[in-house]
Amino acid sequence: MNMGQIIDGKALSAAIKDEVREQVLSLEKEYGRRPCLCVIIVGENPASQVYVRNKVKAAEYVGIDSLKVELPAETSEEALLARIAALNADPGVDGILVQLPLPKHIDEEKVIDAIAREKDVDGFHPANVAGLWLGKDCIVPCTPAGIVRLIDSTGVSLAGKQAVVVGRSNIVGKPVAKLLLDRNATVTIAHSRTADLGAVTSQADVLVVAVGKAGLITGDMIKPGAIVIDVGMNRDAEGKLCGDVDFASCVEKASWITPVPGGVGPMTIAMLMVNTVSCFLAGRLG
Ligand code: GUN
To answer: Which protein residue has the closest C-alpha to ligand 1 atom 9?
Structure first.
């Protein structure tokens, strides 16, 4: 049987982090300090706690100073906004990330808007979103940027390819569609209301799935030889991490496929390091 090749996100992210580590060393020599990333977490969402811990660990590895701000779940929106305003004004802080989701009583949109656009390492601020869609210089969201790097690592060109993105979130679906468009793919965005999802996904030379539904995409829904990128992070009945793609049936048909874990997840964190260095540099160069 012809099996697809695994895209090793762990190895690629390690290589990117090593590059950033070198870069940080030379930046410290040139500018007299290291880049600094502040990560804010509100409440005790266990998944968020793991993500934040991994972000801080990666920062430590590459030599980026990190500041972890842990706030109780009952923190008021006002207090969070005040904290962000103080970090915006702090010249020693280059990047600010507020881990999502936030507790229900806090308006996420208000919080994202409050982060200084030049410190918005997530690329979620409306000014950065506009920059992405207008093709201007901007901070690109980490997961979409990581996905493009994973596809590039296969050596397959996106130009002229049919790309299908399943999911239309502001964090992944919409921005990754724009990045694929920038690479001259013909892009379709499918979602929960798409009629006959399998008919759409089976047209895809490149399939990106970011929905949050375990096993949504099965082998019969993909085109033979497709590149399949699984952004899902779900827990199965036994509590094991699994993606949106049924790996066992898709690996037989795909040319390339990302595993979960070890695919997109580590790349998001590596790209966060890249974005933090970009913010630091943009701050130095004015
Ligand atoms: N929650 C899930 N993904 C992300 C992300 O990329 N950034 C932030 N800040 N929160 C998230």
So the answer is: 99
